[in-house]
Amino acid sequence: MGCCRGRNVLLILLILQLLVVLERQVFDFLGFMWAPIIANFIHIAFLIVGIFGVHQYRSPYVITYSVWCLIWFGINLFIISLYLEIDRVTHKDDWLSLKTGHDSFWVKNGIGCKFVSPNNTVSGDGTVPTTIDGCLLKFEYVESIQSGAECILAFAGFWLGCWVARSFAEEDDHFDFIGGFDYNSAHHPPSKSSHMQMQPM
């Protein structure tokens, strides 16, 4: 009974993770953030493996998903440290777009963001520089919140996946087919005695 309840909770968590990563994938595509796009595709593949494992009661697939959750947790921690510029890493190094010069979708399309151009200012190449102002939430925080949500789901997925995989393994160990390995079973042939008694007919 506990296994079925844990299995259902893990299945709901997997579907929730799939929805969150698909939402993130859409915005990464809009911002041409190629490294996260590749990582999201890999994560989707492992989520499908996890869903199949939970649905088919396959412990190795659920364990594979759980191990991936640890890696995914680390990837998202790294993305958070990039956007919040923890230590020496920074998103300005352009590693997330694989050096193509693209920024996050949320840089220009954040909630409440407005383009402000200084009066009568023209740069050396003839373009008018603009700055983005008035955003309710900076894009660094939006990306960090998305990665933080992924971290929480990955952490929960790791522990729940380990528990469900263990439950599947315990059910396999306790399986006893008819007769099983019980030597006193009714289906076990009687043992032969070494002393046979001859009786007249």
Automatic annotation (TrEMBL):
Kindly state one GO CC term assigned in the UniProt record.
Answer: plasma membrane
Pfam families (UniProt xref): NKAIN
How is this protein situated with respect to the membrane? Multi-pass membrane protein
Keywords in alphabetical order: Cell membrane, Membrane, Transmembrane, Transmembrane helix
**Which residue ranges run through the membrane?**
34-54, 61-84
User: What GO biological process terms does the UniProt entry carry, in alphabetical order?
Assistant: regulation of sodium ion transport
Q: Which InterPro entries match?
A: Na/K-Atpase_Interacting (IPR008516)
Q: Which family does it belong to?
A: Belongs to the NKAIN family.
Q: What is this protein called?
A: Sodium/potassium-transporting ATPase subunit beta-1-interacting protein
What species does this protein belong to?
A: Acropora cervicornis (Staghorn coral)
